[in-house]
Sequence to fold (450 residues):
Amino acid sequence: MLKQRHIVHRLISSTRYSTKIKTPTNAGTAHEVSNKQRIFFTDPVSPGSIFFLPNGTKIFNKLLQFMKLQQQHKYGFQEVVTPLIYRKSLWEQSGHWDNYKDDMFRVMGSDTSKEEYGLKPMNCPGHCVIFKRFDRSYNELPVRLSDFSPLHRNEASGALSGLTRVRKFHQDDGHIFCAPGQVEEEIIKCLKLVDLCYTKIFPLSESLQSAAYSLELSTRPDNFIGDIEIWNHAEDVLKDILMKSGKEWEINEGDGAFYGPKIDIKVSDKSGKSHQIATIQLDFQLPERFDLRYKDRDNTYKRPIMIHRAVFGSLERFLAMLIDRNEGKWPFWLNPRQAMIIPVNTKQAAQVDASRKLLSYLRHEGDPNDDMPVPLNSFHFNVDIDERAEPVGYRIKDALTKDYSYLIIIGDKEVESSKYAVRTRQDRALEHLTSQEIFAKFSDLERRYV
Fold:
């Protein structure tokens, strides 16, 4: 019995395994990590579209959950769900048909005599339809709409590349309809959310000394729509905001959207390649094309200004940057493999039973045989159990190789005391915690995005 009591500490403290992934490129890292952790894959049956596996979907949903919380409860956005397919006439009204149709997927129904449709490559025209649907007052402004619908762009097959260049993707898309006097404040708020994401929650920079991201002001392209004077004014507004921000920025001549100038936020991967992620765009054109208006305090109708913004940008590309940065060693709150429970001796029924009970407790599973629903806003941790008839050292090694954040080892001593041996993947030091203490610890990590 004495030998059994000390086996957990001896096994964990003596196990040393290197799990470092050595890959030179963003694409190589993403595919290697994905193969090991079963995150995503692509298939020729749908070129440029990602098959997110259960582990990848957990990460994807956590990213969405994070952004929805920030947008709705910190920055005042209201989420909407909009159609994927619109009539050609909408894209003609917005200007996309003349300036973007080669990058769109056209949709044909069974009756070819009817109007052609287009699969949406962006959400802005649909949000203009929502704004125009109702009478608007200056008291309502700014109206901030967010949308996480899938988007499709007809990228050339030779340009497709893993997660970074796809045909089907998701954005944390947002559009702000505001009065002229609100533009500066709204763009500053957008930049603050960018800063929160890329300096605190998702630092993608290789070192603390380098900038977390770079800013570029992309100006009027050759295929612009609208009046040059309005374009010049919009560019001046963005220049003034960037000057006041105190951050370094550069001008990227001629790379604006066809409807307005934009601030592009870029990060570099470990190979030094630059990737655009977030964007903030100022648009005077679509409100004019859709005849958007609001009643001002003097009872006259005014034209709102539209701000397009996405902080993650493409979630698929953002995920590629995260994988490039952490090489599959996810922070606990994002990890699809948060903890592995390992009974020391799988022939000991008490150890296996205690492990299974802890598994159910940490997953916060509901009983399918009762009539009680799983409560809203509850924690459910990604915990697995390894009760294979393999040596415990082998199972510890396997869990570390798979980058579980925590290992929970249960031997006879742990069964007797109801305190379980807990260690991280980085540190072999043990904590002995009750199931309630483990749950509280994990809950705290998720609340703090650690």
Remarks:
- The CA atoms of residues 30 and 323 lie 6 Å apart.
- The mean pLDDT is 90.
